[in-house]
């Protein structure tokens, strides 16, 4: 056998090996592992005992999440206002745009790490993830539909009777099954692979730069009481001193009717800020820099202002320009590119 033949055989062998390696990698990507708690995260609060994540139910939930038939005129899906490339927010819109391009009054919050949430929506009122989808489906400015119509539309499609049978063992499309499937998709939207996470878990020799470390220390001193690690929210509702908008959204008060809850909104996570602008419940700030400006010099002494923002008559948080620069460097370590590119969560 001459040299040329050996080269051909070697080339074919390398090609076959590369193909097999590619198949192995692809198989690993497509292997469904179910819900996995990140090592640096606390125990989730979602009741997985009542709704254990399985591949078939998750895939049904993913299909439903991107299904426009959940809206009255079949034009708006959950994924319309919660776009994966924007960490499941409606990037660029101050408030949500729903059916017939109707405008809501609040910014679309990210769908991220919801398995650790005890309350949902900017203004509360929903305390069970399995019930949360009812709000956008029935809200006039969002999907403007009712659940009975949604289920009847799904029942008329062989695609869905087959998916429900695969997921639950029968073709019955019920409210409970519908909600549990959507919940399984949402609890799988876990963002936990930012640089911060890798530093905390001591993965890949990751470490903060000096500027990032300085920013982390400033964060722990001045921000962490509300934005608790590792989720970067404590899940509470607080009044952070925003000037009242023309709509005068009263926040948590609308759910509880308690005067002490007026103008309180859910503390958002600080993860993935690179993808989720604009910021605050009404999307009034286009940049994180503007958010820091608010806290350092624009906090209003409103009814129910959080005491943290009113220390001995001094409003806001004392931040120098150097502090802000370092904080921005640290906050950038919370961006999780793998989350916004996770194929498992994308429309199939």
From TrEMBL:
Main location: periplasm
Residue stretches spanning the membrane: none
Pfam families: CCP_MauG (PF03150)
The name this protein goes by in its record: Cytochrome-c peroxidase
Keyword list, A-Z: Heme, Iron, Metal-binding, Oxidoreductase, Periplasm, Peroxidase, Signal
PROSITE patterns reported for this sequence: CYTC (PS51007), PROKAR_LIPOPROTEIN (PS51257)
Classification via PANTHER family: CYTOCHROME C PEROXIDASE-RELATED (PTHR30600)
Domain spans labelled Cytochrome c: 210-335
Metal-binding as UniProt keyword: yes
This protein's record includes keyword Iron: yes
Cell compartments where the protein resides: Periplasm
Highest rank taxon of the organism: Bacteria
MF-aspect GO terms: peroxidase activity
Origin species: Pedobacter mendelii
């Amino acid at each position: 056998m001459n040299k040329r033949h050996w080269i051909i055989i070697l080339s074919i062998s390398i090609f076959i090996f590369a193909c097999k390696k590619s198949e192995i990698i692809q198989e690993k990507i497509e292997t469904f592992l179910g819900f996995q708690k990140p090592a640096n995260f606390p125990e989730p609060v979602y009741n997985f005992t009542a709704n254990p994540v399985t591949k078939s139910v998750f895939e049904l939930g993913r299909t439903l999440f991107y299904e426009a038939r959940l809206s009255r005129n079949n034009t708006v899906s959950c994924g319309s206002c919660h776009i994966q490339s924007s960490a499941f927010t409606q990037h660029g819109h101050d408030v949500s745009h729903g059916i017939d391009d109707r405008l809501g009054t609040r910014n679309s919050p990210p769908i991220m790490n919801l398995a650790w949430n005890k309350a949902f929506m900017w203004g509360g009122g929903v305390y069970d993830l399995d019930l949360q989808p009812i709000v956008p489906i029935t809200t006039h400015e969002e999907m403007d539909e009712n659940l009975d119509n949604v289920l009847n539309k799904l029942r008329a499609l062989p695609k869905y009777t087959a998916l429900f049978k695969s997921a639950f063992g029968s073709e019955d499309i019920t409210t409970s099954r519908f909600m549990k499937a959507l919940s399984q998709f949402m609890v799988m939207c876990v963002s936990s692979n930012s640089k911060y996470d890798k530093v905390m878990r001591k993965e890949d020799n990751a470490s903060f730069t000096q500027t990032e470390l300085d920013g982390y220390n400033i964060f722990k001193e001045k921000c962490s009481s509300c934005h608790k690690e590792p989720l970067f929210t404590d899940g509470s509702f607080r009044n952070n001193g925003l000037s009242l908008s023309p709509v005068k959204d009263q926040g948590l008060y609308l759910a509880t009717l308690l005067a002490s809850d007026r103008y309180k909104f859910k503390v958002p996570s600080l993860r993935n800020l690179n993808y989720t602008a604009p910021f605050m419940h009404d999307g009034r700030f286009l940049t994180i820099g503007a958010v820091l400006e608010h806290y350092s010099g624009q906090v209003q002494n409103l009814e129910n202002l959080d005491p943290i923002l009113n220390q001995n008559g001094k409003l806001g948080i004392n931040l120098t320009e150097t502090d802000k620069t370092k904080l921005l460097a640290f906050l950038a370590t919370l961006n999780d590119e793998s989350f916004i590119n996770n194929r498992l969560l994308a429309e199939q």
